[in-house]
Queue: 2 jobs
Job 1
Amino acid sequence: NEIRLGAINRRKKIKRVIIGIIIALSVIGFVLIIYTMSLKNTGFKIEKNGNQYVVCEDTKFFGDGVVEYIPDAEDTDIQMPDTITRWSGIIPKVYKVKYVYASDIQSTGVSISLPRYFEGFKYEIPVNSSAYYSKSGDNVVFENISVSSKNKKYDSRDNCGCLIDSKTDTLIRMSENGFIPDGVKTIQFDGMYDYFKNNRELVINDSIEVVEDYAFGYSRIWNPNGSFYSIDYVDFGSVKKIGANVICCGYISKDTKIVLPKTLESISYYAFNSCSSNDEYASIFYEGSKDDWSSVVKYDYVANAIKYYDDIYLGYPGDSFVSYNFYYYSETEPTEKNVYWHYGEDSKPVIWS
């Protein structure tokens, strides 16, 4: 009996040891799986439903990852999902689609639907901390833009065909078929890039308070002869601040009329840069008086410091602003000629001459 009991106890001990080893190996295996999943693994591509994505952020354990969508160079109707799922064995990993790789997007004729988690466009693969980043897509001229109604940062309110920062009411980018909806307060850098390619007039909404530097980009209106047309008319509505080179490089001619509102508080000293000779200067119509104009701040940034001026300039920086290009508002006909203006029957400026 003692011998039999001893054998039974030895078998039980061996069984317990084997079970312990199996449990230990299972724990070690599980820990290794978790450790592997916790590693940051960026830069690799995922193919899903014929589309490509590159992982630019990978969270630890079971959290969400982030991918950048890579449009096909021939795609003119870019539809992006909110998320994609990548399986690692039996464990699914969900990746939010936050960015679009913009370098291969065609420069014109592209419609794009931006997903729930969209944050911006990027210009480098694999994505890393030094990747060039842009909210607007830079020199891509979209035919139409729509944003998921679930996106918490951006919107395309009223089906306006624009990318708008929901918190600041800033126009990030307007598409060819877009319009400025009510409530927008700022037009950012390149926000209306290439607008004057198909339009020669613009009346800015009264809700707009700030027009940032290069708001209309560098686009030009080309005619069949290979040269380009200039802008006919721009009315800045009720804007308070106008940045540098808002209208520049080929937009302006001697036939261009620009209306500046009395609400204007500050303007870059070279907001309107014709890049042309003196005879190409535009006519600028200010809705206030001479005293009102003197109180408007004319500024520039030089070596990261702000510098103030007595007036603004046309042409290349440093060219003087000729007085006969500038007119002050007067409802009634003044005795002094060719200095004042009023609105004509077509609601456009007419000089008291």
Note: The two ends are 130 Å apart (CA to CA).
Job 2
Amino acid sequence: MTRNQPNDPCATAWQAIKAREFRDWHGLPEGCAYENFDSEFSRLRDEYGQGGLGRKYVPARYRIHLAKGYDHHLKVWFREETISLIEIAYPTLPYPAGELLRRLGAPGLELDYHLDIMPVTKGAWVYPSRGLALFLDAGHGAVMSIALFHPCDPAQYLDEIHPDNQVSELSLHE
């Protein structure tokens, strides 16, 4: 299903996503158009959602897409028509997670995050200059999700891109 738009600067990124190959990932090029991604990966549904990204909760829309080789969906966040973030839930990589972690080296940021309702201490390994974040399990041995974005500095990642996927558990009895 290769339908790259002519002169699409993001075609290499689309191929890496299809191959589930992130060991040499160096970020989404600036200005990746959502319509080009949409032509490469089928939508789960036509509707889109809205939310905010980063600690500044910058508004963005998102759509859910499917991709061969992924058991779960790809959530693509965009502002206007430019992709801000691609989230890949529970990726099955064609190589061991440890190999990816060794290849990437030490992250630029190690953040706490929530895997559903479970807190994971220093489980978000963020490589801002590579446009990549890995959300690891509590033992830091398995990749639970991947976030892809354009290379940026740590402050921009935290302010405008970092997804806050914390699920709150509410009491049934008050």
Note: The first strand starts at residue 49 and ends at 53.
